[in-house]
Sequence to fold (1337 residues):
Amino acid sequence: MKVRTKLIIGFSAVVVLLWLIVFYAANNMGGLKEHFLAVESDIIPNTLEINEIENTADDAYQLTMDYVLRDLPEADESSRIQIYKLVQLGQTYLPQAEQISPIEYSDNQKLLVKIDSLTFNLSNIINLKEIGTSYSELLAFDRNFSLPALLDLEQFISEKKADSIVQLSAIGEDYKQAHFSGILWLFVSAGFITIIGIAAAYLTTRSIVRPLHALHKGTDMISQGRLDYKVGTKAKDEIGQLSRAFDQMTTNLDKSMTSIDVLNAEITERKKVEEALRKSEERYRDLFNNASELIQSADRQGKLIYANKAWQESLGYDESEIENLTFMDIIHPDYLAHCEETVQQLLSGEEIPRIETTFISKDGNSIQVEGDVSAQYENGEVVGTRGIFHDVTERQKREHLQQDENYILTLLGQGTELGELLDAIVHLGEDHDPSILGSILVYDPVKQWLNQASGPSLPEEYLQLMEGGIPIGPVMGSCGTAAYRKERVVIPDIANDPLFESAEEVVNVTTKNNMLACWSQPILSSNGELLGTIANYSNKVGNPDPDDIRILEWSARISTIAIERKQAEEALQESEDKFSKAFRSSPNTIVITTIKDGRFIEVNDSFTDITGYTREEVVGNTVKDINIWAQTKDRDKMLRILKKDGKVHNHEFNFRIKSGEIRTWLFSAELLNIGNEPCMISMTIDITDLKRAEESIKDSEDKFSKAFHSSPAAISISLVNDGSFIEVNNSYTRITGYSRKELICHTAEEYNMWADTKQKDEMIHKIENREKMNNEEYAFRIKSGEIRTMLVSNEYLNLNGKVCVLVSSTDITGRKQAAEALRMSEERFRLIADNATDLISRIQMTPDIKTDYMSPSCLRITGYKQEEFYSDPNLGLEMIHPEDREFFVKHVSSDNKKDQKPITVRLVRKDGQVIWIEQTHAAISNDQGEIIAMHLIAREITERKDAEEQLKHAIANLEQSSAQLEATNKELETFSYSVSHDLRSPLRSIDGFSQALLEDYAGSLDDTGKDYLNRLRSASQKMGELIDGLLKLSRLMRSEMHQEEVDLSTLVEEITSRLHENDPKRQAEFVIRKGLVTQGDPELLRALFENLLGNAWKFTSKSKKTRIEFGTTKNGNKTTYFINDNGAGFDMTYADKLFGAFQRLHETSEFPGTGIGLATVLRIINRHGGNIWAEGAVNKGATFYFTLN
Amino acid sequence: MDRSKETILLVEDNPDDVELLMRALRKNNIANDITVTRDGAEALDYLFATGKYTKRDANETPRIILLDLKLPKLNGLQVLERIRADKRTELTPVIILTSSKEEQDLISGYKSGANSYVRKPVDFTEFVDAVRQIGLYWLLINEPPYQN
Fold:
């Protein structure tokens, strides 16, 4: 199928589906909405209607209520309006109700009916009102009819409303539900469609895009060169065809590429091989040319084909000449035959081992060689020979020489004497070249000339000439010159050589003995120092040949060895001797031990002396065997040091000697090789005693240091010559305020430490004269500027050769200040004490009791003079009355702070009189808290004491009387109680029976009899009153007074109004001053006023109009109260009788009363501490004045 | 209920006072039996049918007890306490009739369980009137505890 077709089908399907979905959804939604609208149109107007109805009903209700409850009793006009309104409402509603659709009509109809009835009721009400029904009946009526109707209506409406709301909300819910589900459905289907659409689109595109992709990838692969890649599609559409064609193309390309590759590879291989070959050839060539061996190759005939550089050099031919050479030319004639033989062997295929042969160089020299020869094969046939040879000429010569050398060394080793050695050397040299005569001379550095040491072949004459020694110098024959120059000197012709100019004799001898030429080689030590000379004499004139030189040089070298060796041996021997001596005679122990196990090799005499071991006990044993190291790990430590530094120098270790004692030794050691065994030689110095001394010094130094620094005194050490501080202790820095750093190397003068220049000069002078100071007082200025007083002492000492002074100072500033303060205080005290009237004394308590001071007043007070106290220390105590002495002593010696109060004691005066004193004491303590003195101050209080005693007595008396009073009171109380009770009883009887008589036997009595009985009765009653009055009085007197604030004005008002109330028919006027308040007992005051006012009321009973006044008058500074009445008054003549008990100034018939009242009043006033008096006139009223407290 | 059968116990040592009281009661037409005991001990003997009153029925308790405080042998308060201690008489109305004005007696009387405290007035007329009132109240108006 074509691509295009696919796409069209796919998209069409999607579109159709979408359209279907939308259509269906829309449809659904439409239907739903219609339904909802229909319902809504029903219900909502209904609801609205009902709302309206409700409102109307509400209004109706409201109006009804208003009307019924409020307006009905009132005016009619407003009620009419109300009703009118109501009717109107009903009327408005009616038409509305009719418009509602028939289905609902029935409900609303009901509504209407109700409102109708309501309206009906209301009109009834109005009618009723107009006919004058009473309010309460109306209320009842309304209550029974309209209210229920209204309520009913309300309920109905609310039900309806509820219904419609429910309905509406139900439909609303439905709608919402449907709406929701519709939307949901829409989304779901839309989603579904989308998925399908995407799937379709995807599939469609895939069938197109994928092949294209594959194709694209294919092209990529090709461009990268991967020709084996195939797209490989089976699709039948255009893209498929294209892909297949593409694949074909790829295959063809691949094939052609392959063949080219193969070709290339071959060529490359070829080239590589050629190159390798060439390189290899080069290497070989190089190798051959640079070899030190002589390498040649020749053909069958013996003609040379090739010879390397070394070969060319040795034989002296160059490159171009090689071709023309044959074996004949190069082989030494002696060896030719051997050579031929060898060649034949080779050509016949034999293998030849090492051969030796000799070549002839171009210039005829023999060259001894040894090496390998082999045949060269080509196709199995021998075409030539190869040879590789070493030039051994030199080697052989050297070997020969080496042999000689070894021989000499052997001789050396055997301990041959130098002379013999040198002879041997000369002989060997001569052996090499018989034309040579050799000699060796040895240099004497002290005399600075050469001595003939060896010349075994030299002629006697010559030797004799050399006897005395040959000086060295620039022109001293060959030997001397050579020695001088330290260079070889060659003299080809002795006879005519300038160096032998001055030695004619020598020349003669040499010439005579056929010593025509000579050469000398200096013998130098390894340091380049002259040891001697070799001289070789030749019997021919001419220069030495190389061999001769070689021999000469060899001789010199060997001689060096021999001579040096010999010298070394001698030195060693000497050193050994020296060592041996030193070893043996050293005062310190010297020991040689092996390092490995500490085995004693040798010990010196000191060792055996000090340790107590003998040589035999020690040598051959180890340090462990004799346990000489006090601690074995010390030895390890020592070995470590030795290993690290190569030696040990003066290390302290502890060792155990034979006796077991531990000694401290300073140990030093050095490595030493004996044979091949690593050993050490150690030397020790016994420092045990030294150490002990050191320690004790250190101890004493420590002690000193401690003492120095911890001393509370300020100590300083200074140089005498310049006064600079060397050392100061801690107290010094603390007291002066300067730090050690500030002081050391500075002077006291620098810091201006002396307060006074005169003092400074004085002290410096003393020190310079080495004067000893002992606790001398000086004033110093410390860092803060404060001046302190110090007691200074010094000592002189010698430190490190310098004279120093040690100064020790004690700070007594405090002490001085304290002393000064004390002195001043004492002065003050004395001033006071001398002038006091009281007895002032100071008693010293320690060491003995002594009167330090007694004031002059002692004479007046005690009768004793001052001197008597000073002379007799016990007088003070003896003066105290014996009975009081113990108390006094206890008091003054007590530490208790409470006892610091003054005490009273008696003193016995000189004249025997006893006086009382009041004494205070103050104890004076020292720094340790002990009482050192006592201050006493005493005052005479005899008079006071007497007064006190009297007072005490008076108080005692008072208390007694008071107690008696109490008792009396108590008795009185009991008495009055029983009096009242007991007295009353008979009274009652008297009165009772009199009355009984009067009542029961009235018939039998005449008037007189009745009269008598009446008198009886009144008498008994009176008695009763009297008893009551007395009881009351006594109770008032007994009771305790409570002081309170009492409002007198209010009290008076109360009492007067009560009085008036009890007799309201009387005309009375009360003038009461307001606000009169005082302190007093309320009960008593009440009784007081009751009495006074009662009296006033009583005595004004006859007056027409009673007037009673209560107020105050000023009398001095005391408030005087008064009660005034306008009553009967009294005769002033009898005024003093007023307040007596039972006193009356009137007859009972006139004014009843017992006569106790005023007595009571008087008692009350007295208890308050006040006064009372009265003024009056007959029939003119009375005024009672009184004060309280 | 025959009120006239109920007795009044009078505890009083003063013979004059006894006579006056009886007279007062008669004057007020109080016809109850009045038993007089002269001291505290006798009063208790009567109440609890001991001593010389053993023949009496102790369950027959008086209607009211008029009690004086100042008595020989046991004093009025002690008698009162005994009366109140016994189950038979603990509720019987006790009226203290005394001349004492002492506050202490008043308080003690009430504390010990007296129902009423009356001070004897000196004046006889008053006294008679007091008796009348006591009679009216305690015998007529007040409901007794034991209704037998």
Notes: Residues 215 and 1182 of chain A are 156 Å apart (CA to CA). The two ends of chain A are 145 Å apart (CA to CA). Residues 100-105 of chain A have pLDDT under 50 and may be disordered. Residues 146-224 of chain A form the longest helix (79 residues).
